Amino acid sequence: MDRNEELNKLFQRLFTHWRADRLRSCDERQRLTKLAMRSCTDEVVLLWLRKNSESDAFSKLTDMFDFLKKLIDEEEKKNHSDDVHITFMAHGAIRDFMIPASCYLPLPTITDVLLYSPWNCVSAGLEYGIATGKLRPQHRVFSCNDKESCTIPDDKHRPVNLPDHWNSLKKAGAQMVPNITVSPLRDGELEYFEYLSAKHGPPGRNRIVIPFIVPGREYESVPFSVVTLALSLVLLSSRFKATLHFDGCLRDHSTGPKFDRKYLQEQYACTIDNSRMTHSPEAFNDDKCCLC
């Protein structure tokens, strides 16, 4: 057998395995979306599931389900109660279109999704405060994220009429909100969280932390709605119901027209470009927990 023939046979075997894996993934995605439709009681979410179940946006549903199930299975072995708080840590952005807020809570297994950053805002160093529940609205500190080219002073980066609560997508209901996309964290990006955990103590009982880390490979962005759908389905086979806390930036990375800032300000809050939100030093001095 010459080298070309040997290579052709190798490529044929690889293609056959790839095609079989893809077919299995498609079958699993269909199974998961059908399960979601059977378990969903919200007509708005049902319509969204029907329209998107075969779309490219749902192509990572099976991967996210497998990723989350492995982690939740481990957490079930721990001394949590049935009601837990899950913090999902990832790089985040908003882009291109809106969806009903209720689509981020597709099944009753997720009781609420809380966003911490205002729309169009970069966030930094919030991981520990969110994961422990110690971060309160009064701890928000805003500044300029681009000191070199932005001439607007730090205090002007604070949104006007900033609510004294976090952005609850349950309360938003069917209101249209931006499409959030997430991508994995990189090596070394959890060092501050680990430092604060060592200094002040870990998040503790009933608090689950899920850093979006995919070892050994690059991973393209995924719609956050697909993440919450996958998590909702994972929780169906667990004893948990969860409040989901999202730790990630919500800067507008739309490739076309940007979101209507006035609308986003009315929905919750929206910052001007190049805004950054961090926490004040007092965030970890109070052991009381505020989740609203």
Number of helices: 8
Mean pLDDT: 88
- Low-pLDDT segments, ≥5 res: 13-23, 287-292
What structural class results from the helix and strand content?
Answer: alpha/beta
Rg from Cα: 21 Å
Share in β-strands: 15-25%
Give the CA-based shape.
globular
Major sheet details:
5 strands, mixed
Instruction: Give the % helix.
Output: 25-40%
Strand line-up of the largest beta sheet: 6-3-10-1-8
Order of helices and strands: HHHEEEEHEEHEHEEHEHE
- Strand count: 11
This entry's quaternary arrangement is single chain
Number of domains: 1
Give the terminus-to-terminus CA distance. Answer: 69 Å
Question: What's the SSE blueprint?
Answer:
Elements: H1 3-39, H2 43-52, H3 61-75, E1 83-89, E2 91-100, E3 110-115, E4 119-123, H4 127-132, E5 140-144, E6 167-168, H5 169-172, E7 176-183, H6 191-200, E8 207-211, E9 222-223, H7 224-236, E10 241-247, H8 261-267, E11 270-279
Helix pairs in contact: 3-7
Descriptive overview:
The protein is an alpha/beta fold. It has helices at 3-39, 43-52, 61-75, 127-132, 169-172, 191-200, 224-236, 261-267, and strands at 83-89, 91-100, 110-115, 119-123, 140-144, 167-168, 176-183, 207-211, 222-223, 241-247, 270-279. It has one domain (3-284). Helix 3 (61-75) crosses helix 7. The longest helix has 37 residues, at 3-39.
Summary?
By secondary structure, the chain is α/β, with parallel strands linked by helices. It is 35% helix and 23% strand. The chain has one domain (3-284).
